[in-house]
Specification:
Layout lengths: L1 H27 L2 E7 L10 H13 L5 H4 E5 L5 E6 L1 H7 L5 E6 L4 E3 L4 H4 L8 H5 L7 E6 L36 E6 L19 H10 L3 E6 L2 E6 L7 E6 L1 E2 L2 E2 L1 H14 L3 E4 L1 E2 L10 H11 L3 E5 L18 E6 L4 E8 L4 E2 L15 E4 L15 H4 L3 E5 L5 H10 L4 E5 L17 E4 L1 H13 L4 E10 L28 E4 L3 E10 L4 E8 L2 H18 L5 H10 L21 H4 L6 H4 L4 E2 L4 H10 L4 H8 L23 E4 L4 E10 L6 E7 L4 E6 L2 E3 L6 E10 L7 E9 L4 E9 L1
Parallel strand pairs: 6-10, 6-13, 7-10, 13-15, 15-16, 16-24, 19-20, 20-21, 21-22, 28-35
Antiparallel strand pairs: 1-3, 1-4, 2-3, 5-12, 5-14, 8-9, 11-12, 17-18, 17-23, 19-23, 25-26, 27-29, 29-33, 30-32, 30-34, 31-33, 34-35
Helix pairs in contact: 7-13, 8-9
The structure holds 2-acetamido-2-deoxy-beta-D-glucopyranose (6 copies).
The site of one 2-acetamido-2-deoxy-beta-D-glucopyranose (NAG) has 2 residues, from loops.
Amino acid sequence: MNTYKTSFIIFLFCTLVCYTIAKNDQKNAKKNYIILNHAADDVDTSDDEKATATHKAMLSTVAKDADSRLLYSYNKVVNGFAAKLSDDEVQAMEKHPLFVRAIPADKPYQLLTTHSPDFLQLRGSSGLWQRTKNMGEGVIVGVLDTGATPGHPSFDDTGMPPPPKKWKGHCDFNKTACNNKLIGAKSFLKAGAEELKHLPPIDNNEHGTHTACTAVGAPVKNIDMLGLAMGEASGTAPRAHLAVYRVCTGQACESPDIFKGIEEAVNDGCDVISLSLGIDGALPFYMDPVALGGFYAILKGVFVSTAAGNSGPNATTISNYAPWLLTVAASTTDRHISSSVKLGNGLVFNGESLYQPKNWTSTMLPVVYLLGSASKCVNGTLDSNQVRGKIVVCDRGVNGRVEKGKVVLEAGGSGMILVNQQEDASSTNADFHVLPVSHVSYADGNKIKDYIRSTKQSTATFLFKGVEFNAPNAPSIAAFSSRGPSVVSPMIIKPDIAGPGVSVLAGVPPMTLPTQNTTIQFNFLSGTSMATPHLSGIAALIKKEHPDWSPAAIRSAMMTTADTTNMEGKPIIDQSGLPADVFAMGNGQVNPNKAMDPGLVYDLAPEDYINYLCGIGYKDKDVNAIIFPAPPVECAKVNATSEEQLNYPSIAVPLQSPIKTILRTVTNVGEAGASYKAVMTVPKGISIEVVPPTLTFKSLNEKQSFKITVKRLGVPVPKIMAGELKWVSAKHSVRSPIAIRA
Ligand SMILES: *[C@@H]1O[C@H](CO)[C@@H](O)[C@H](O)[C@H]1NC(C)=O
Ligand SMILES: *[C@@H]1O[C@H](CO)[C@@H](O)[C@H](O)[C@H]1NC(C)=O
Ligand SMILES: *[C@@H]1O[C@H](CO)[C@@H](O)[C@H](O)[C@H]1NC(C)=O
Ligand SMILES: *[C@@H]1O[C@H](CO)[C@@H](O)[C@H](O)[C@H]1NC(C)=O
Ligand SMILES: *[C@@H]1O[C@H](CO)[C@@H](O)[C@H](O)[C@H]1NC(C)=O
Ligand SMILES: *[C@@H]1O[C@H](CO)[C@@H](O)[C@H](O)[C@H]1NC(C)=O
């Protein structure tokens, strides 16, 4: 009784005191914050020292050790700074006259990973590189990522000229590693863990080298992967210069570091910035470092290509949705590393694996699908007596794809059929497995399981056919690719465009595969991370062809010329097998040849975005934090526009009332004297009128405006309807999808 009482009291005491201590600890715990300050007219963007002194003075009003707390001072991308602060200190700082907003920066951005040049028709005598003699020469692409592998064959600079005079950056590698290809390399890692702060910009992940090679990698011929001939790997702009900014370690990229990286990349003189990273959840633009940094970039004429995210296929999972960014979805390519399954009943299913043993004899072996926890082939769940000498069916999920194979091998199995979950649908991967494997779709997996259940003597084998360029339905939108619209601005259709993002082959740091007894310098990776640098490279090609085009004009050129049909001429589909909608693929699959010569563009200047920001109801102080260093505005005095009226190359129509009119303006970048006719696809229950229905341009760079009037015909209509508007001339077809929300 006595003991009970004592322990009860102690327990109670601890509950109160410990709780209070914990709470205080939490309040005093210091987290990374980005502090946005008022963007007063007198902020000098050229005087870094003065800005840092101002920021330190502000910081020292709440913290004695301002010097050690300050991570970065920003005076170009925004007026503000990043620092380690407690919640109490942030609260105290709110009283400072310069304070606008504190952005918590404790949730890192993630890298978005999970044969493309031939597929995009850049190569060959009729390909873009030959036809236009444009391989991105003189254009500088900045890649914010995990760094790069110095000395990689994809960064060979044979035949490359020195960087253009405007280049102000530097390369933190030694002389032999830095060359006319790899002209810049810097690390910004101050916001992360102490032991990571001083890492050089050397890639220890794969991601940074892979994305950089995909954008601007020099051509590397005759790539051999485990004995399979892969052909050539090359970036989409193989003669563009590369500057890498390391802002990520492992999978994590801290937002104060990303923010500084964007500021540096713009100031160093990059023409294009490639960002294959994102964060889940919707942030308003003034809380989102990529949106804030991206605005500074476009203000300086720098194109920003970003990843849509890998959180698909559910709606409104999109990241990087600001209308001044290019948002890239991921599609499949036609390359397939074929490893098929042949069943005892004669049925054959196409699958993939990169491990294709030469000595495989294709004898039929018993095949099993174990129930319960063993169905996923997690370590410790397989009974050797049930799998020895057999092919084992393993469902995806819980543990890694390659690990499942190891588990099967360790338990004595002879092979594995790796089956997608429903949400993975038909997206398969060519992985470095350790035993014979075929990775098959969800639908095919079900048929294989049906067969196993139907007979006592089920058997199967694998048929290895190596590299094939006939994958069905290519390109199709990957299941993982995040879907729009954004909840922040639903009347801007996002993503904008799709590019190759499934099993993309590109350079990686040299890796030894112990199980294969070989070292590789190229690898297949998947994700919107891989799609994004394809578009960054293509933006570099357009920039080379049209140096005076704005970032919005470059984006418009890509979007209005994108393909909506696949290689077989059928509509591009998504993982469900049905045609992909605008919230999966935006305007469609990028077509670089056509994007060079779009005929018309939907152009946007920074002030159009300012009118838009005022139009979505942001407060003056938030608008001004975003648009800095553009002069501050008062929203009451600008022509605020509602989001659907932003001159975007895709058109969303909110049809709450029976009739809605949308305005757009096109600029003639084709030829003088061209005449365009409006051709429309109109959904049932709706009418669309375009006025004027014909646009004739006397001169180049002439602008003409038109009105699109959408009316309900009084019959019931679905909530979302799809149509399109094409301006068609003798030479060009300028397409905008229309999404109508009733
Ligand atoms: C420079 O870097 C290259 C590539 O990483 C390396 O092979 C070489 O040894 C380095 N040279 C010096 C002097 O550090
Ligand atoms: C995606 O949507 C489906 C169906 O609406 C839902 O069951 C599922 O939980 C969603 N997934 C996520 C990750 O939100
Ligand atoms: C095939 O070769 C691999 C390694 O080269 C070996 O481990 C395996 O036992 C061989 N299989 C057969 C059936 O000979
Ligand atoms: C499975 O677990 C055993 C025992 O812990 C371990 O030795 C083995 O490496 C594990 N296998 C895999 C593929 O993780
Ligand atoms: C690994 O490869 C090397 C060179 O190709 C060869 O000499 C060696 O025998 C191989 N080792 C094994 C374990 O297969
Ligand atoms: C707003 O639009 C009107 C009409 O186009 C124009 O005359 C006026 O100058 C604009 N105001 C601002 C602040 O841009």
